[in-house]
């Protein structure tokens, strides 16, 4: 199984990657750190699964680059672009936030999950709330990976 993990937070990305690698050594994980690099990798490669964060910078951060505009709904924007370009990938959102605010609008993670299901019902798998103080995210993610591997 080949997975693309789009996550800008280094600590969270490492935890997710380590968890998946401990489950199954045959899973190949490619990483992206921003909206731009994540979308480009998704368009240029073939993946079996996309694990995506919801909020991310526009560009990869570096010592000389701030990452550009912060995209509150960057994950949703990537899903829309993939659908528009007929390059959809089965995906799961893994977010450490339960609420998202932009332009005086606040959406819960559940509301975003509904929107994602409406945008790409055939490819949307689930939404996982990442919480370092709980192992619930690991259980959910393991169940998703097991289901996807069987397909």
Residue-averaged pLDDT: 94
Rg value = 14 Å
Which word captures the global form? globular
Determine the N-to-C terminus distance: 11 Å
Secondary structure: helix percent: 40-55%
Q: What structural class should be given to the helix and strand makeup?
A: alpha/beta
Query: How many strands?
Result: 9
Arrangement of strands in the largest sheet: 2-1-3-6-9
Strand content is 15-25%
Instruction: Let me know the largest β-sheet.
Output: 5 strands, parallel
| Element string (H = helix, E = strand) | EHEHEEEHEEEHEH
By DSSP (H or I, 4+ residues per run), the number of helices equals 5
Unreliable parts: none
How would you describe this structure to a colleague?
- By secondary structure, the chain is α/β, with parallel strands linked by helices.
- Helix content is 40%, strand content 25%.
- It contains five helices and nine strands.
- The strands form three sheets. A five-stranded parallel beta sheet has the order 2-1-3-6-9, with helices on both faces. Strands 4-5 form a two-stranded antiparallel ribbon. The chain has a two-stranded antiparallel sheet with strand order 7-8.
- Helix 1 links the parallel strand 1 and strand 2.
- It is globular and about 40 Å long.
- The N and C termini lie close together (11 Å).
- The relative contact order is 0.17.
């Amino acid at each position: 199984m080949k997975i693309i993990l789009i996550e800008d937070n280094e600590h969270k990305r490492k935890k997710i990657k380590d968890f998946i690698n401990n489950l199954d050594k045959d899973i190949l994980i490619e990483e992206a750190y921003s909206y731009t690099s994540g979308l480009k990798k998704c368009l240029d490669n073939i993946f079996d699964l996309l694990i995506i964060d919801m909020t991310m910078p526009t560009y990869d951060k570096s010592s000389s680059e701030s990452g550009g505009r912060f995209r509150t709904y960057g994950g949703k924007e990537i899903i829309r672009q993939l659908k528009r370009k007929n390059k959809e990938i089965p995906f799961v959102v893994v977010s450490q936030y339960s609420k998202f605010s932009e332009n005086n609008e606040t959406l819960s993670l559940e509301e975003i999950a509904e929107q994602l299901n409406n945008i790409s019902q055939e490819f949307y798998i689930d939404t996982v709330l990442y919480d370092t103080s709980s192992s619930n995210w690991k259980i959910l993610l393991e169940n998703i990976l097991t289901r996807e591997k069987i397909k």
